[in-house]
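Trying the structure run again after the queue cleared.
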Amino acid sequence: MLFSPRWILGHLLAFAAFATCLWFGWWQLARFDSPTGGPQNAAYALQWPVFAGFVAFFWYRAVRDGLRAEPGPKPPRLVAQPSAATQERIRQDEERDPQLAAYNRYLAELHERHAGTA
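Done. Tokens:
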């Protein structure tokens, strides 16, 4: 999985981001030593390696989570059917009050969806 084209691209981007952050830190350190440099450049020189650490940490987490979430067969979705009493009640309401019957069908459908996700 870690050698699929998508993951290889991710590895390359993470490595490029990590290297770029370190390079910016080195560059800021060189700017600090220059005649026009100052304390702000020193602070940036310390800040960029921290960013590189964030890149490494988040890429490690992405790889770890990707390995844990290995795709497998999904369990079958269980869908509860409305009870016979509910179906009979909707049928009776259909004769007396079509709007109430439509509302009850809607509630039964919501119940089925909820029971299927539980």
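Residues 84-117 form one domain. Worth checking whether this holds up in the mutant runs.
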